[in-house]
Amino acid sequence: MSINKKKLLIFFNFICLPALIISSPDWMKINGIAPCWPVVWLLPFSLENSPWRAALAAILLGVFVDSFTISDASHIPSLFILSLIWSQYGLHNKKIELFLNIGLMACFGTSFVGFSFWVQKIFLYSHLRNNWFHSWSIYALISEVIITGLVTPIFSSWLLLSYKKNNETLSNLKN
Fold first, then answer.
1. Under 8 Å between Cβ of 83 and 46
2. Torsion on CA atoms 129, 126, 83, 104, rounded to nearest 10
3. Of the candidates 135, 106, 105, which has an alpha carbon nearest to the alpha carbon of residue 118?
4. What pLDDT shows up at residue 1?
5. Is residue 100 part of a domain?
6. Tell me: the pLDDT tens digits for 122-132?
7. In which domain, by residue range, is 102 found?
8. Which residues contact 11 (CB under 8 A, 6 or more apart)?
9. DSSP 106-159
10. With contact defined as beta carbons under 8 Å apart, do 17 and 41 qualify?
11. Which residues contact 84 (CB under 8 A, 6 or more apart)?
12. Residue 173: inside a domain, yes or no?
């Protein structure tokens, strides 16, 4: 029975979430801006795994997300730093009492990813340093933070619970 649950968890992680990144349904957008799906997936994975596993997952996820963009700016550095921060938080066995705390952590993570992507674009494209670019970037960043904060408690808390149940099942089988 536990093998079927593990297969379901692997299926959801490796098939369904990347499909959400690719398809990005319209009902999960604010004025055309989708949630930051890498943060939604990386948050529970980093909380439940060691820093090395979380960092490797962040790098692979960053490569996957960057493969869809033409830009020179990358998601890899920000996802890598977030994975290390969140995995350290998870190593200290701090309990997340409310699922809204996951949403708050995702808001922080999304703002960090968006801000780092924005700063990379400013340094790479110095001719974009005008007010129009910054007003559009601020609007996109705020919209992405809001929609990610609303979506994350649903998806990430479900993933976090399934990771915990999977780890408990594996520890019971070892004993």
1. yes
2. 0
3. 135
4. 46
5. yes
6. 888 776 566 66
7. 36-159
8. none
9. HHHHHHHHHHHHHHHHHHH-GGG-SHHHHHHHHHHHHHHHHHHHHHHHHHHHHH
10. yes
11. 51, 54, 55
12. no
